[in-house]
Amino acid sequence: MVKYGLDYTRCRWILPLLLGIGVIFGIIALAGWGWLESQTLPYVLQASLWQICRRPDQGGQWSCESLMGYAWGRAAAATYLVGFLLLVICFALAIIAFAIDTLRFNFIRGIGGLLFVAAVFSIMGLVIYPVKFSSEVEMTGINMFSWAYGFGWTTAIMEICLGFFFCCLPNYEDQILGNVKPTYFYSSP
């Protein structure tokens, strides 16, 4: 990417594409039912970020309860949702930044800073949820934090990594814009 510069059409959209993948993972985490599940038979517990469902035995009916009745449930959902909304804003800003012919590198560094703020909010929600859930909600059997919770952590890790990329990209401004003279390792006699 640095060799050809950001004018090289295939490399220009890599960072916004990765942000888009992070947004998709965030949507999966917000909508997914696999934040917490029973690991062994009988499968009697299933929870999302928004509610918990239980059933008395293997063949019974599920009864659901909202986690928004708990202060920690509202806090976990709110902080993760704020982190996700900041990620969506960064995605939109990245599309705008890379669509403009003349890149504004301070603008790109600002997107990186905003991604770090989004990561902080996401991680706060991802830490509040399991700590308070396991201490305040009665669970039976062996339970595990499952796939949707993993997508939440993947989104947070992507926010951190992409924040570094967006913050470090302006350090290579001259190489990206082609303002550096090429160095030749062969000298003629």
TrEMBL record:
Note the Pfam families from the entry: PMP22_Claudin (PF00822)
Q: Which Gene3D superfamilies does the entry link to?
A: 1.20.140.150
Its cellular-component GO annotations read: cytoplasm; desmosome; plasma membrane
The entry's localization annotation reads:
Cell junction, Desmosome; Cell membrane; Cytoplasm
- Give the record's keywords alphabetically: Apoptosis, Cell adhesion, Cell junction, Cell membrane, Cytoplasm, Membrane, Transmembrane, Transmembrane helix
User: What parts of the sequence cross the membrane?
Assistant: 12-36, 77-100, 107-131, 151-172
Bilayer topology reads: Multi-pass membrane protein
GO biological process entries: apoptotic process; cell-cell adhesion
Top-level taxonomic group: Eukaryota
Q: What is its main location?
A: other
Q: Which InterPro entries match?
A: P53_induced, PMP22/EMP/MP20/Claudin
Spell out the family assignment given in the record's similarity comment: Belongs to the TMEM47 family.
| Protein name (database record) | p53 apoptosis effector related to PMP-22
Instruction: Tell me which species this is from.
Output: Vidua chalybeata (Village indigobird)
